[in-house]
Amino acid sequence: MSEIREVNSADLDMQQSRYARQMRYAPLGKEGQQRLLSSTALVVGCGALGSVIANTLARAGVGRLRIVDRDFLELNNLQRQVLYDEADVAAGLPKAIAAQSRLSRINSQIRVEASVADVTAANIESLLAGVDCLVDGTDNFETRFLLNDAAVKLEIPWVYGGCLGAEGQSMTILPGSTPCLRCLMPDPPPPGSSPTCDSAGILATIIGVIASWEANEALKILSGNVEAISRTWLVMDLWESSVRQIKLDGARQSDCPCCGKREFPWLSAERGSQTAVLCGRNSVQLSFPERSGISLDEVANKLAGVGEVSRNKYLVRAQIGEFLLTVFPDGRAVIGGTEEIAVARSVYAKYIGN
Asked: In angstroms, rounded to a whole number, what is the distance separating the alpha carbons of residues 28 and 86?
């Protein structure tokens, strides 16, 4: 936990006013609030879960909020992603940038750091530098297993969460104390073996509940109330009006590859891919970690002759026939119009180059 920072009288008066109702909750109190203001949280993914989580943590006064997301906004996001509006979609903004702008207007007392990036083995440890708690707002298990590796290695508490349809689940992980993700799930589900939000749909209501649970667990950790965290696996189905809390006593495995044997294959990039079929998007993301970056001006000029091009300082987008190409400064691209990785790679090679 970061050291509790000193504040001047004017700041203190503003804090007393802004957080008065929160501080009156005895388990948190003034000391807990000061800890929040001096803490740093990383929210990975700023879509459905992540936007609610980031909104809650910012309003609660987490002093330094780091948000990272690889994606840009689309109209279908607005059904469940609470930080954004139609103007953000029309502007073609990356989610992290739109979220940073909105959060900074919600709470100007905190520091909001935004990163438009894919979370990979190459950057996760730098993203976690100085972080007191990691909160999961992702939509895929490869990234979650990477987060688990990094959090266990660096001994950073993290909160897992996921939603599909009307069902959601969450678990809080304290490295060295509670089971880690791999204690309970040694490997990610095989691709195509489980439904996605595209095939099964998703309700905004379950997003709000699970994200609030995750944010609340993070607030316990960041305020110095670690003993209050849930030591269960929460499973909730709002449509069926059912709630289960599976006790995790004794679930920590001494021979767990991650927290037991301290093997981190996702963090070392021995496992995990550099491509991803994006949930509910009919799109494929292509990543090129070895690249130092590309010129968006050059990309825009190249694509201008073959498709309808729009751009801002964060990305270039081109509609070429049935495919929508979105290219980022790090060379990463999202190819819309296909879920076939081979097709996406072919489109990239044809219009962007190898």
From this structure: 36
User: Around Cβ 30, how many Cβ atoms within 10 Å?
Assistant: 12
Q: Where are the domains of the chain?
A: 9-247, 275-351
User: What does the pLDDT look like over 213-223, one tens digit per residue?
Assistant: 999 999 999 99
Between strands 158-164 and 133-136, the pairing is parallel
Contacts 24+ apart (CB under 8 A), 18-27: 18/61, 18/107, 18/109, 19/60, 19/61, 22/60, 22/61, 27/225, 27/228
Find tokens 């825009």 and name the residue: 300
How far apart are alpha carbons 156 and 280 in whole angstroms? 31
Tell me the C-alpha distance between 65 and 131, whole Å: 9
pLDDT score recorded for residue 199: 58
Task: Say which amino acid occupies 70.
Answer: R
> Quick one: tokens of 68?
């990272």
Cα(243)–Cα(141) distance, integer angstroms: 23
Residue 196 confidence class, pLDDT cut points 50, 70, 90: low
d(C-alpha 23, C-alpha 35), whole Å: 12
pLDDT, tens digit (0-9, with 9 covering 90-100), for 254-273: 999 999 999 999 999 888 77
pLDDT tens per residue across span 116-175: 988 989 999 999 999 999 999 998 888 999 999 999 999 999 999 999 999 999 999 999
Architecture of the domain whose range is 9-247:
3-Layer(aba) Sandwich (3.40)
23 residue type, one letter: M
Note whether 9-247 and 275-351 share their fold.
no
Collapsing DSSP to helix, strand or coil, 234 comes out as strand
Look up the pTM and report it. 0.86
Answer yes or no: CATH 3.30.310 is held by domain 275-351. Answer: yes
